[in-house]
Write a structure and sequence with these properties.
The chain is α+β, with helices and mostly antiparallel strands and about 130 residues long. The chain has four helices and four strands.
Length: about 130
């Protein structure tokens, strides 16, 4: 009787261990990929339009350095420099990553707006 009980206990333990491993493996492979959203960031920077190419290069390098450290869940697409503002387009998993990037880089992020869709002249033709 003792041999049967030990055998049953051993088989039960092995089955449970296999089940737990299978569940963990299934959970790790069924995790949904992150969804990147588009954001427009409005940065109030007095006389931004008067920044020199060297200054813009330094700002770009700082931004890229911070992004590299933050990982692939945030990406800078491009920016538009105007008189007293810089408008930036980013892809990120969430708005908090945009704020974190701004803080780490020393950039203002006065207004952050999620972009729901884009249109262009091509939209009129479809």
């Amino acid at each position: 009787m003792k041999k049967i009980t030990t055998a049953v206990l051993l088989i039960t333990t092995l089955l449970f261990a296999g089940y737990t491993h299978a569940q963990n493996t299934a959970n790790s492979t069924t995790t949904k990929p992150s969804v990147m959203k588009m954001y427009l960031i409005e940065r109030d920077i007095p006389d931004a339009g008067k920044l020199t190419p060297e200054q813009l290069k330094a700002i770009s390098q700082k931004s890229c350095s911070v992004l590299k450290d933050m990982g692939p869940q945030i990406e800078w697409v491009q920016s538009y420099v105007t008189g007293n503002k810089i408008y930036c387009v980013y892809r990120a998993e969430n708005e908090e990553l945009i704020r974190e990037h701004a803080k780490k880089g020393g950039f203002p992020a006065n207004v952050i707006t999620e972009i729901s869709t884009t249109i262009s002249p091509a939209t009129a033709k479809n």
